């Protein structure tokens, strides 16, 4: 992930999640260098997205387990099957 593509992802995220002042969004990050970008932070702030970055080297200990099991686990399985097919 690069800063350029992460900024595009934030645009995509805003388009589909539609955060608002009435319903702000908490966005959890893993402290990757592409996330530390003034344009991303400003865009998130303007669009009612609160960004919370985990400290380095402890994301695996602090990430919400349910989210990983319910979203990333099935997604990784699907992606692996699609790439090997």
From TrEMBL:
A single Pfam family, by name? Answer: DDE_1
What is the official name of this protein in its record? Answer: DDE-1 domain-containing protein
The UniProt entry, under InterPro entries, shows: DDE_SF_endonuclease_dom
This protein's source sits in the domain of life called: Eukaryota
Question: Which segments constitute the DDE-1 domain?
Answer: 1-81
Molecular function (GO) terms listed? nucleic acid binding
